[in-house]
Amino acid sequence: MADTMSFIIMHALLALWALIVALIMILMAILCFRKDSSNRDHEIGVTNYPIAEQGMQGPPLQKHEEASRPIMFGTVVQYKNEEGTESRCTECVICLEEFKDGDSCRVLTNCDHLYHQLCIDEWLVKNSHCPLCRGSTIGYRNVIDEAIRLNSIGEESHLAMGTSGHRDLKENHWLDDGAYLMVKLLNKLASARASGKGVGSKVLTDLVEGLEEPAIAVELRLKINQNHPDLKGRSFGKYGEAVLQHLGISIASKPKLQKAPVNYEGVRVSGFGGCFLLRLSLHDPVVPLNIEAPSHEDSVKLGLEVAAAVKEFRALDTSALDKFVQP
After folding, report:
1. Domain boundary among 139, 168, 190
2. 87-107: per-residue pLDDT in tens?
3. N- to C-terminal Cα distance for the chain?
4. C-beta separation of 118 from 128 below 8 A
5. Which residues cross the membrane (predicted)?
6. Distance between CA 29 and CA 136 in Å, rounded?
7. For tag attachment on the chain, is the N or C end more exposed, with fewer CB atoms within 10 Å?
8. CB-count burial class (<10 Å; 0-12, 13-18, 19+) for 194
C-alpha cells in the first residue's frame, strides 16, 4: 500500500513539474511575441514617426553579397520625427548622433533597429549582426520569404528551417522562438501521456521514425586563414565567396554532377546518389562542407570533386577534407 501511494505521489509531482515548466515556456513565448510586436510598432516609426519608404533593400552593400545573399538587409527610409511623440529611436548607436529630419536611414529587417544608412552599411561590410541587439542581419529571412511565397500560391508551408537549424513556424508569425517550440513539444508529451499513447522521448522520436536518413552524413569545416597572403587584403567573407563562385563554375563542366538551380545559401550539388553543400559561415572564417551519400565510397567521390575545385585557394585549410578522401 505504501509503495502504491509513493508511486502515485511521485507521478503527481512529475506531472506538476511538467505543468510548471509548460506554463513558464508559454509565458516566455507570450512575452517574446509582445516584445517583438512592441519593438516593431515603436522602433520603425509606425506610431512614432512617418517614414518614406525608398525600396525594400536600398542600394546594394557589396557586389559579392548581392550575388550570394538575395535577401533584405533592411528598408531605406527618410527620418522624420513628429512633435509631441516619444520615440526610442532618437540617435544612431554607431555614430552616437541624433537623427534629424531628412536623414537617410536603414531599418534592419530582422530586428527593426534604425541606423544612419551610411553608418550601418559600413558596419555590415565587416559584420553580419545588428550592433544593438547582436541579432543576425542576414539570418534566415530568405527561408521565411520562400515559405510565405509558397503559402501565397496554395502550397502549404508551415515550417521554415535554415541550414544552421533555426526553425520558424507559420503559426508563431515566423518568429525564431525556441520557447514556443519547446511548449509544443511539452504539449505533445503531455497529450500522449494523458491518452495512454506512451511516455518519454520515444513519443517524439516516433514522429520522425519513418523519415529516411542518408547512410553517410558528414560535416567538414574548412577554415580560412585570415593572415594568409592569398587573401590580398580581402575580408574572409569576400574570399569565401570567391571559393563558392569558383566551385560553381567548376561544377558546370562535370556531367555527373548537377548544381541546384535554386539555392539560397552556398553551392548545393547532386551526384553519385548523394549531394554536397559548401557554404560560408555567417559569423566565422569557416567554409562548412556537408556531404550526404548512400555509401562511403560515393561520399568520397563527392569530396574529391570539391577538393579538386578549391585546391588553388591556398588560404583555405582543406586538411579535414584531405583526410576524409584518403583511401
Report:
1. 139
2. 457 889 999 999 988 899 888
3. 65
4. no
5. 6-33
6. 20
7. C
8. exposed
Q: Which residues pair with 108 in a beta bridge?
A: 74
- The C-alpha cell 586563414 sits at 225
Rounded to 5 degrees, φ, ψ at 52 are: -95, 110
Domain span at 194: 1-43+177-209
User: Strand 114-116 relative to strand 258-259: parallel, antiparallel, unpaired?
Assistant: unpaired
Q: Are residues 59 and 134 in the same domain?
A: yes
Same-domain pairing of 181 and 133: no
Distance CA 52, CA 104 (A): 10
Contact criterion met (CB below 8 Å) for 288 and 276: no
Q: Is 154 or 213 the better-scoring residue by pLDDT?
A: 154
226 and 184 inside one domain: no
Please state the pTM of the whole predicted model: 0.55
Choosing from 139, 163, 187, the residue where a domain stops is 139
Determine the residue type at 269.
V
State the cell numbers at 49: 514617426
CB 178 within 8 A of CB 185: no
Q: Are 50 and 80 in contact (CB under 8 A)?
A: yes
Q: Which residues contact 34 (CB under 8 A, 6 or more apart)?
A: none
Tell me, yes or no, whether 101 lies in a domain: yes
